[in-house]
Each structure stands twice: as C-alpha cells, then as structure tokens.
C-alpha cells in the first residue's frame, strides 16, 4: 500500500468535472443541427452577455447574435492578462470574463507546470467566451425560455481535427504530482484522445456540480456552402522553446527525446554451447574435470595390481605407534585379513607421537584419574558453576523484532530508515482485511466480488470495526483515535465503501454496486466518488484479482486501515492494543460472517508477524522437550550392553547415565543463555530452536565415544586407571573437535548480521560449556555408573542389588580380563564395512561418486536462490499463511518508494531547485525527470509511475499564473482561495463576500527570477504552502499531501535537511522481485546522486529486510571460510600435520558444498537462517571427521590397516551420533 496512495486529499473539484451517470460518448457528434438565430460571419457574437441562470445559480449566456464590442482600455488589459491572443474587439462583458476567469482558475494549478499546455487550454476557452470571431465557429443549437428571457442551452463548437489533436498532444502527458498520475485524469476524465477530452469538457454539468452550465458539442464536420470557419488557431507544442515543458510533462521535447536507456542485460555469466545445448562455463569445467578425474581413477585401478605400485601405495602416511604399544581388545589390535590377490602390508619402524598429542594424552590421563577419585567434588563444583551461570536467565530477553534480527546496525538500509523516521515520519502501520470470492468448482474462475450483497456485507464488517475498542492503560481505544487523518477529517481508510462516503445510508441512494463500478472509472473526476476524507480513492488500492483496468472483474475487496506510527514502542502501545482486538474480532466473528457469502477472509495487523513469531517460540518448547525425550531413550539404548551372558539387562543398561547426559546438555544450553543474557545479549528464536539440538548432537557423540573408550580398557586395571586411560585415548580427539567447533562458531560471531552473530556467540559458549561438563561432570557420572554396574546394582535404582553373587565371576567382577561380545555395529564395521572399503574397485567408486557429487554441487551453486519466504518462519497454522497467499494472488499495487534528498540547498545561487524539479525550466536530467523516465520502463526500473513532488507543486502554487493559489491580503498575510474560509464562510455561498476581494497574488511575474523564487521568497512562502488546504480553486495546497514530505527544522539557513518525493514500485510478488527492485532503486539513486552532485537515496519499508540479500553470497563465503579457517588452525595445532588438517578441511568443505547443492535441488533459499545452518553444519561435520581422522593417526601399520582400525574403533560411535 502506498503511504498516501490517495495523497491528494482534498482535491475536491476540477475544471469541467461532471457526473457522467451513463458514461460519456467517445466520439464527437457529426450530426448537423439546424442553425437557430446565429448569423455566421466575422465581427459577430453568437452569444453575448448573460440573460439568466440555472436553478443552481449558474449563469447562462444570451443566444441573440450581437455585433462585437470594443472594450475600454482597462477591460482590454484585463482580458489580455488571461487571453493574450484577443486584442481589440471582444464578444464578452466584464461579468462574463469574470466567470471565465473563475472557472479556468480551477484548472490552472494542474497545468502551470507545462506552459504550452496551459496556454493552449486557456486560449481554447478564451476563444469560446470572448473571441470577436465567435460567430464563425459557434452555433447555438438549443435555447431555454425563461419567461421573456431566452438563454443558451446548447451550442456547437466547430474545430478542425488538426487543432484538436495538437491541443491534446500538448497536454496528454502533463502529470499531476500530488496523485502520481496524469493531469488529464482530472481535467479530461482520463481521456485517451482529443475526442474523449472534448466530450468530457462539453458535457452539461448537473445541478450544483462543477462543469459547463450548458452542453458544448465539439464538431469537426463543416458542410460546404456554410459560413462556418472552425477554430484552427496556432497551438504551441509542449516542446516549443518559448513555452517549453519539462521532460516529465513532454517526453517529445528534443532534450528528452532519448528514451530512458534500457538497463544493461543481466550478467548471466559465461556460457558455452555443446551439442546444441547452452550450459554454464562452470558446469562445463566441472564436467571436464570430472571426466579427467575418472580417467585418473581408472588408471590407478588398472595399475593397482602391479607389485611395485602396490608397495608404494601401501606406505604409511603417519607412523606413530607399533601395534604392540597400543594394547586394545581384539576389535582394535587385530589386523583384518588381507583380501585375496592383495599383498600383505609390511609394518615399518614406529615414529614418535606428536608432542601435542603426547602432552594432551598425558594430561587427560591424569585428569581422568583425578576426576574418578574425586567424583563428589567434581559434581558439586560442576553443579555450582552451572547454577550460577543459569542465574543469568533472569535477564533473558528474546528479540523478535525482524529489523533487529536480520539487519546489521551499521547497514546502509538501517541508517536510511533511521534518517527517514527521525527527519520525516515513520511509515504508517497497516491493518488490512482481504475478502475474496471462491471459484464455483476447481478449474473455474472466481466470480466478481463487486456485488450489492458483498458491499452490504462489507458495511456490516465496517460497523463492527468502527465499534471495536482496545484497552490501553484503562482507556478504550477506537480506530478513530489512532488512524491516519491527513486533513484532520475522517480516517483515510482505503475501501470501496469510500465511494459511498463510508455511509451505509448512501448505498441505496447511490445505486449500490453500479455506483462503485462507475467510480472505478471516474474516481478522480467525479465529486460523487470522492471519499469521506475528501480525496479520491484509486481502485487499484482497494480491489484485487483483476487484470489490466478491468476493475469490474475484481475477485477481492481490499480494506486497509492506515494507522499513525511512532518511532518508540511506547508511542505505539495504544495502536498495538487495538490491533490485538482487531485480530480477535476477525478470528471470532468476521470469519464466520463471510462464510455464507462464499467468501474467504484473510487479515493482518502491523504487529501480527511479531505476535506470531512469539507464539511459535512457545509452541516449540514442546517440540524441544519431545526431541530431548527421544534422544534420552536413544542414548539409553545405545550406551547399554544388552548381553545376558555377561549380566542382566537391568544392570548393564545405561538409562540413568543417558538421562544424566541429556541433563548435562540441557544445562549447557541454559548456562550459555544465562551467561550471554547476563551481559545483555538478547536471545533469538533461532537460539531457542536450533542450539539445543546442535549441542545435543555434539554431546551425544562425546558420550558415546567416552563410554565406548572406557569399555575397551583392560578390566584387570582399577576403574580409576581405566577412566584415565579412556580419557587419554579419546580426550585429544574430543578436545580437537570441540575446540574446532567453538572457534568456528566464535568466528561466525563477527559477521554483521545480528541473527548469525548472536547465534554463533551462543553456540560457541554452549559447545564450550558442554565440552567442559563432558570431561568433568559426565566423566564423574560415568565412573559412578561403572561402579554401579560392576558391583551388580540395578540401573535407575542403584541402591538395589541385581544379584551380585551371580555376576562376581563375570567381566564386571573378575580380576582377569574377560572379552565382551562386540555389539552389532562393531561387528558390522569389523566384518563388513571396513573390508568392503578395502576393495580397490570400491575405493574407486567411492571416490568417483563423492567427487561427482562435489563437482555437481559446485555447478549447481550459482543457481541457488536468495531470500526468505515469510511463510516459512511462521507457524503452519498461522492466519498469516493465507494472508500472504492472498497478497500474492490479489494485490495489483506495489509498495511505495521514496526518493529522499538530503541537504537540499534551495538558494537561488545553488541551482539545486532546477536539478530536482520536473516542471517548466527544470533541467532535463533532474531527479524527478529521471524518475519519470525510469517509470517508462517499469520492467527493469521497477518504478510504476512518476514521483509526487512537493517541490513541483510548491513552484506551481507560488506562480502568478496560478492566481487562485498563493495570495495575500493587503496587510501581507496569507489569503486562502475564494472557496475557503474566511473568503467563503461556512454555510454561505462562495464568491459573494468582500472579505478577500482585495487579495492579490503573492508575486508578479517580474518579482521572480527566471520564473523561480528568490531564497527569501522561497523561505517565506514554503510554510504557507504546507499549511494551505487543497480545494476547487487551488488543488495545489500542500497540507495533507505533503505534511510529512519535508523537514523544516533549520530551513531558514537555506538548506532543507530532508525531503522526499514518493512514487510506487511495480507489484512485487516473489522474493526475487523485492531484491531486484531494491537493487534497481539503489543503482538509480547512485547514478542520479553522482550526476547531480546531490545526495539522494531510495527508501521503502521493505528495503531494511532485503538489503542483506544484495550481499548474502559474500556474507556466506566469508562466514564459511572463516569457520573453515578456524577449524584448520585448530587441527594443525593439535595434530602438527598439514596433510591431516588439510584432509579434514577438504572433507568438511565437500560436505558444505554438497549441502549447498541440495539447497538448489530442494529449492531452499539462501538467507540468514540457511547461513546459520551452514555454519552449524561445519561444527557437526567436524564431529564426523575429527574422531575418525584422529583414530587413524594414532594407529600403526599400513594405510589400509590403519583405516580399518579407525573405522572399527570410532565408526560405531560416529554412526550412533549420526543417527
């Protein structure tokens, strides 16, 4: 919706405007009426003087032929001031001329910006009223008898077709800035050619309606043998140098003849044609690389059986320990048998363990033994620290405002929005209802919504909305209390009911839906169609579902309630209270009201999105709880040993340990949130919804690894020693993975996007806290659980014995080492998975498949779409889901766009006025002329119409030509138009008082400098303009239309700090439309700012949310690259091996790239949420890669044996984590 889509509030009357109840004819009559009493010939008047009036007081001419009259000098000068082409004799009296002047002054403000059009328009009516050759081209065809008086009832006015076409061409493109539309819509009823225009002007106005008091039949046919000489006087073209119009009003001008240069074609990138198909160069390159890789793989496989190649390929990458140095169960130390036809690996001399690895293993062994000996102390300290951290939750504050989540505080769009809100006015709040018809059956079109029944229903709905009250601090708030009122009149509601003045009693008086359909075509030219707040209502803002201008085929009624917006939350509290009741009303009452009418209703308020996001956050609590419960059950099952031959299941199970592990994960998340909240960092819904699952996944992996490592230790050792050895074995890999994850998320906290930054910060703290609790509290709990199981006590009820005597000789109680039966996953890894991967052909296939996925994903990534569908982030049962669907389907008007000018220097020396305006004498490449040119190519500019310009209207209002606008009393103070108080007191007929009889125009033409006001004149009259109400005598008043369009603070210095010129985007239906519109607007203002040397920026309410997508690819690359770099640094530091670190990073990068490829296939858009998930995927991928890689580096033997051992040792744990 536009901020003031109806912004010319108060444009009440227009020259020759008429109620055309039956529509007007679209052709000029060619029927030749018989001549009455007019005597055609020069120096004869067809109708001279006034002989009567209509019932509404409108004066009527005398129909009697009269010789021309020679005026006195004073009258002659007065005539020439308006009609310079009429000199000498005339056919009008001073009274007739006064009526002419009063009538045309209503049209002057619309046309002053284009001098050629104005002059031609005035000449036409001067010829009609006062020309001494009137008898040659006017024929009185009908008279009224009023007693002894006879008055003109109808005339024929003869013109040539060339004259009609030329005068129309000079005016057809003149725009009316306040309404972002053509002046022809007002002075010509939207005429599309000169015949329609003449027909509109010649229509006889009804009683008390503006327009001609008698019918004027414009004719172009002249029969031979008559004395008729049609008007064919000279017409000034709009590009006439002496009366040149601006480029916006006259695109045909030589300086404007160049069409708006088309936007450069979108950079589609590099493409090549292969076998008739056009494919991207990147795709072709990936295909070529993959083919080369397949040849390499095939060559390797072909030569694999050569003994010398076999030996060289079997060299260990890293030599660490001999098998004899690493005592493990048979599942670890046993080298799997070689496959048939495979050379047996030959072990090589051991190499020393890396310093960091040896150091960490030793520290973790000591730490594990200390924890096992001091279980109670460790648990007490862990609980104490966690509780202290959780106390910070008292200060927890969840941020749900979208602009605070997805917009960087330092972003350009955020700065521009803050400037717009603080210097001009915040964009108003929107409350909206959409009523749409339903097709009779599937595949059929929806019927028209404009029916008497539906409009009466809408009146009933409106009555309920009007009676609605919200409670704010004990005060009842109605719509009238908060709505936007541009002129202090009724609310500026955008509704089809405005055609009935929002009055149900007028519905039948105005003939119901027929009147609405009439107003769709004449909303700007008919007084009966004006709204209750005094302005015209554009049907594109109140209807939906139509094509072109077929408003009667509309399938939706759109009702918009603009509400005053405030910068602070406190200032909007009353509006929010009313909005809550508004949503309740629609849900509980209106939905049921429309169902019997076969209609659907969708609705929204300004606070709806934030309210629905908050509702979703509370709804997700149950989802998180259920997920943790499922994970608890899964952990309990996977950690336990269900081997009846060893011990009963109720002894070997790990239910209590699994519950403890899940609690540790939950405490890690809560502690992270408490810690960050204590320092004032606001949480987000992403944190609440994602981090619990992320930390749970990491925690489960570490728990599985720790439990399995302890199970692998020699049972002949004391439990405390086994705990130390288990931690020494897996502690370095857990540390490596956790530290890599922490650094990856920590790096992400430096991204500018608040949602990503806060998520990364919370995730880093949560993973770090989880790691610390895992190697302390969980190790202590693990020790207690093994003591319980080895002593034969029941799980979950450790005080109850499970039959100790029966299991004293088992592996839990024996002093000698007993071999457990390996689990299913362990047996699978040892007997199937690892041997299968050792087959050369399988190796080749695995490498080929995964590199194929990598290359395919790289080729797909350029096709990834950016944006974030609002429906995705909302609950599936939200009422906004249907609302957004209807917005896309039905709305036919785009969002408003404001071109904001900073520090406009209006001094006459700066010449910035001509660089901005678009009326006569403005620069051809001025800002507003460029906007008009851009609107000619909306497909690329996304600008649908010229901009509404307070500057243009002010200059016209100030001009002496608009003699009904800027006026002053003899004392020098402001004098309003004659149809406004005090010139026209309320309740009295205008034009008969003496209050304003001595008012004169503010300036003479000679007072201006080349048609422009001086700095002092500009400064003095600008407040007058902004306070002037628009009316029939002067439609250019700035009050209402431009009240918030500029900031006068400090303007006395000659500089206006902020001002805006408003236009509209084309309808935007897709995420890509919004992004492209923003980019086009940015490019446009950057070009204009540079060429004019004036700071201009575009602003629309959606820019702040979509700016991120202009650079989302770079943000993604930086975030992922930083996270990968952090992981590489940690891996290099802990492993001291560049090859190992590179291998880990390469595999993680492959995973991330494959995920981005899947995003294209699954149509997942790239946005802040997906960037967060991609960063999170790096953290999760670390868990997959680091543990197996670490196990590989810590085993000895040939590469294949070490890989097999690593899979057997860590594969089962990682698989459990993956599940």
Automatic annotation (TrEMBL):
Keywords: Cholesterol metabolism, Disulfide bond, Glycoprotein, Lipid metabolism, Lipid transport, Membrane, Signal, Steroid metabolism, Sterol metabolism, Transmembrane, Transmembrane helix, Transport. One of its GO terms (molecular function) is lipid transporter activity. The chain crosses the membrane at residues 282-302, 378-398, 621-643, 655-680, 686-710, 722-747, 759-784, 836-861, 1112-1134, 1141-1162, 1168-1192. GO terms for biological process: cholesterol metabolic process; sterol transport. One of its GO terms (cellular component) is membrane. InterPro entries: HMGCR/SNAP/NPC1-like_SSD (IPR053958), NPC1-like (IPR004765), NPC1_MLD (IPR053956), NPC1_N (IPR032190), SSD (IPR000731). Residues 1-17 form the signal peptide. Pfam families: NPC1_MLD, NPC1_N, Sterol-sensing. It is a multi-pass membrane protein. It is found in: Endomembrane system. Residues 620-784 form the SSD domain. PANTHER family: NPC INTRACELLULAR CHOLESTEROL TRANSPORTER 1 (PTHR45727). Belongs to the patched family. This is SSD domain-containing protein. It comes from Physcomitrium patens. The lineage of its organism: Eukaryota, Viridiplantae, Streptophyta, Embryophyta, Bryophyta.
């Amino acid at each position: 919706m536009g901020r003031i889509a109806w912004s010319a509030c108060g444009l009440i009357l227009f020259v020759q405007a008429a109620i055309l109840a039956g529509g007007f004819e679209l052709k000029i009559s060619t029927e030749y009426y018989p001549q009455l009493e007019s005597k055609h010939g020069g120096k004869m008047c067809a109708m001279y003087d006034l002989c009567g009036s209509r019932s509404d007081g409108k004066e009527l001419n005398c129909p009697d032929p009269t010789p021309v009259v020679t005026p006195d000098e004073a009258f002659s000068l007065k005539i020439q001031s308006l009609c310079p082409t009429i000199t000498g004799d005339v056919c009008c009296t001073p009274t007739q001329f006064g009526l002419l002047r009063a009538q045309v002054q209503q049209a002057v403000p619309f046309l002053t910006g284009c001098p050629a059009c104005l002059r031609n328009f005035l000449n036409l009516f001067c010829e009609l009223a006062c020309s001494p050759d009137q008898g040659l081209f006017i024929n009185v065809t009908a008279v009224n008898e009023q007693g002894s008086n006879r008055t003109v009832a109808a005339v024929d006015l003869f013109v040539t077709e060339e004259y009609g076409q030329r005068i129309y061409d000079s005016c057809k493109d003149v725009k009316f800035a306040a309404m972002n539309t053509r002046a022809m819509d007002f002075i010509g009823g939207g005429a599309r050619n000169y015949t329609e225009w003449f027909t509109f002007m010649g229509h006889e106005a009804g009683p008390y309606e503006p327009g001609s008091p008698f019918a004027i039949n414009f004719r172009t046919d002249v029969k031979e043998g008559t004395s008729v000489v049609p008007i064919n006087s000279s017409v000034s073209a709009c590009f006439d140098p002496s009366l040149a119009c601006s480029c916006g009003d006259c695109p045909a001008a030589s300086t404007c003849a160049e069409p708006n240069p088309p936007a450069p074609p979108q950079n589609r990138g590099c493409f090549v044609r292969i076998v008739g198909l056009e494919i991207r160069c990147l795709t072709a390159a990936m295909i070529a690389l993959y083919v080369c890789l397949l040849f390499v793989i095939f060559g390797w496989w072909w030569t694999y059986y050569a003994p010398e190649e076999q030996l060289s390929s079997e060299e260990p990458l890293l030599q660490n320990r001999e098998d004899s140095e690493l005592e493990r169960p048979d599942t670890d130390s046993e080298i799997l048998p070689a496959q048939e036809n495979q050379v047996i690996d030959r072990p090589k001399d051991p190499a020393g363990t890396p310093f960091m690895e040896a150091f960490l293993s030793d520290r973790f062994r000591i730490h594990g033994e200390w924890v096992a000996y001091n279980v109670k102390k460790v648990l007490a300290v862990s609980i104490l620290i966690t509780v202290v951290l959780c106390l910070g939750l008292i200060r927890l504050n969840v941020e749900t405002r979208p602009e605070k989540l997805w917009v960087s505080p330092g972003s350009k769009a955020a700065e521009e929005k803050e400037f717009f809100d603080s210097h001009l006015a915040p964009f108003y709040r929107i409350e909206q209802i959409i009523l749409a018809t339903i097709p009779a059956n599937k595949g059929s079109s929806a019927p028209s919504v404009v029916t008497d029944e539906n409009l009466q229903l809408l009146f009933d709905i409106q009555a309920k909305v009007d009676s609605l009250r919200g409670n704010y601090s004990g005060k009842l708030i109605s719509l009238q209390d908060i709505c936007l009122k541009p002129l202090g009149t009724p609310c500026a509601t955008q509704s089809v009911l405005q055609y009935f003045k929002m009055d149900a009693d007028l519905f039948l008086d105005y003939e119901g839906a027929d009147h609405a359909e009439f107003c769709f075509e004449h909303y700007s030219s008919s007084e009966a169609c004006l709204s209750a707040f005094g302005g015209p209502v554009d049907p594109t803002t109140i209807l939906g579902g139509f094509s072109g201008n077929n408003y009667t085929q509309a399938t939706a009624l759109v009702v918009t309630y603009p509400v005053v917006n405030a910068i602070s939350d406190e200032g909007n509290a009353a509006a929010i209270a009313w909005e809550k009741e508004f949503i309740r009303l629609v849900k509980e009452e209106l939905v049921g009201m429309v169902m019997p009418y076969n209609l659907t209703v969708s609705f929204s308020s300004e606070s709806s999105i934030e309210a629905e996001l908050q509702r979703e956050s509370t709804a997700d609590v149950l989802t998180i709880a259920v997920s943790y419960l499922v994970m608890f059950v899964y952990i309990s099952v996977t950690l336990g040993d269900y081997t009846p031959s060893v011990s009963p299941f109720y002894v070997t199970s790990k239910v209590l340990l699994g519950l403890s592990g899940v609690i540790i994960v939950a405490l890690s998340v809560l502690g992270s949130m408490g810690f960050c909240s204590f320092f004032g960092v606001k949480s987000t819904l992403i944190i609440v919804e994602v981090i619990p699952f992320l930390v749970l996944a990491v925690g489960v992996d570490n728990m599985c690894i720790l439990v399995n490592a302890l199970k692998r230790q020699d049972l002949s050792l004391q439990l405390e020693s086994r705990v130390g050895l288990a931690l020494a074995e897996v502690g370095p890999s857990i540390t490596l993975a956790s530290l890599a994850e922490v650094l990856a998320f920590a790096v992400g906290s430096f991204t500018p996007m608040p949602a990503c930054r806060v998520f990364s910060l919370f995730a880093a703290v949560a993973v770090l806290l989880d790691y610390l609790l895992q190697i302390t509290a969980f190790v202590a709990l693990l020790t207690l659980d093994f003591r319980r199981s080895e002593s034969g006590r029941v799980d979950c009820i450790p005080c109850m014995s499970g039959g100790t005597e029966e299991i004293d000789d088992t592996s839990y109680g024996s002093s000698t080492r007993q071999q457990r039966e390996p689990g299913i996953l362990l047996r699978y890894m040892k007997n199937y998975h690892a041997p299968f991967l050792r087959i050369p052909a399988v190796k080749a296939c695995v490498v080929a498949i995964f590199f194929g996925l990598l290359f395919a994903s790289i080729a797909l990534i350029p096709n990834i779409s950016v944006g974030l569908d609002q429906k995705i982030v909302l609950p599936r049962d939200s009422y906004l889901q249907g609302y957004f669907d209807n917005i896309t389907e039905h709305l036919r008007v785009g969002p408003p766009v404001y071109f904001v000018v900073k520090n406009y220097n209006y001094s006459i020396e700066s010449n910035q006025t001509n660089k901005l305006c678009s009326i006569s004498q403005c620069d051809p490449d001025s800002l507003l002329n460029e906007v008009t040119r851009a609107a000619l190519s909306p497909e690329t500019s996304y600008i649908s119409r010229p901009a509404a310009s307070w500057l243009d209207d002010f200059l016209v209002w100030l001009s002496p030509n608009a003699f009904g606008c800027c006026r002053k009393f003899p004392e020098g103070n402001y004098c309003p138009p004659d149809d406004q108080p005090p010139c026209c007191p309320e309740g009295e007929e205008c034009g008969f008082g003496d209050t304003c009889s001595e008012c004169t125009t503010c300036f003479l033409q000679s007072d201006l400098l080349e048609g422009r006001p001086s700095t002092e004149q500009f400064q003095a009259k600008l407040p007058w303009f902004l306070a002037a109400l628009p009316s029939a005598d002067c439609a250019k008043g700035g009050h209402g239309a431009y009240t918030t369009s500029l900031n006068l603070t400090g303007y006395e210095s000659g500089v206006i700090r902020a001002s805006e010129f408003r236009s509209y985007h084309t309808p935007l239906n897709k995420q890509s439309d919004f992004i492209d519109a923003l980019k086009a607007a940015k490019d446009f203002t950057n070009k204009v700012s540079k060429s004019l040397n004036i700071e201009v920026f575009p602003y629309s309410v959606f820019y702040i949310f979509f700016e991120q997508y202009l650079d989302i690819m770079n943000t993604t690359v930086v975030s992922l690259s930083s996270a990968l770099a952090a992981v590489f640094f940690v891996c290099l530091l802990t492993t001291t091996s560049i090859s190992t670190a590179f291998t880990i990073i390469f595999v993680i990068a492959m995973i991330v790239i494959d995920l981005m490829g899947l995003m294209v296939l699954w149509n997942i858009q790239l946005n802040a949420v997906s960037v967060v998930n991609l960063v999170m995927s790096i953290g999760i991928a670390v868990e997959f890669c680091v543990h197996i890689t670490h196990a590989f580096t810590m085993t000895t033997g040939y590469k294949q044996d070490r890989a097999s051992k690593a899979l057997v040792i860590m594969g089962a744990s990682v698989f459990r984590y993956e599940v």
